Amino acid sequence: MKIDLLVNKPQHIEDVAKMVYKEFVVPTSSKKTYEEVVEFFKRTYVNKFPITFIANVDGQCVGTVSVFENDWKERPQFKPWLASLFVEPSYRSQKIGFYLINALLEHMKKIGYTKVFLKTENAAVYYEKRGWERIETVLDEQGDRIDIFKYTLLNDENNY
């Protein structure tokens, strides 16, 4: 398995768009089209947002994670945000998500960030076990619980 920036592997833009569209757009009330998601991922970068990583196994994109300047307009003071972590179901339980997140955190530290935030509706335990600090729990417009986490990037050893 190899982790790389999507900007270095543009042949996987549509793979990432399909994953994100199916997992994070379709189940919501978002009006974004698949084509808009593809266009979004055509504009990912190395040192400015959005930044997207992919996991590649034998030439196939099997997972992705991004960092956005802001992933929740209700909390503009928190930035940047880890977002859209997804691993294909047949590749789960192989630490691919762990390696994607680790690559993202190391990259953020390298380009000068000291904190990364995220929101999750159903994976609080996963992030708590990996050193993320829950800083807030709120209810969204539908009354669903959202946990907000912060990860502090240390200058020395990061034991993500």
UniProtKB/TrEMBL annotation:
List the SUPFAM superfamilies hit by this protein, alphabetically.
Acyl-CoA N-acyltransferases (Nat)
Domain of life here? Bacteria
Q: Which InterPro entries match?
A: Acyl_CoA_acyltransferase, GNAT_dom
State one Pfam family annotation.
Answer: Acetyltransf_1
**Which residue intervals define the domain N-acetyltransferase in the entry?**
3-155
Which residues does UniProt call coiled coil?
none
Q: What is this protein called?
A: GNAT family N-acetyltransferase
Organismal lineage: Bacteria, Bacillati, Bacillota, Bacilli, Bacillales
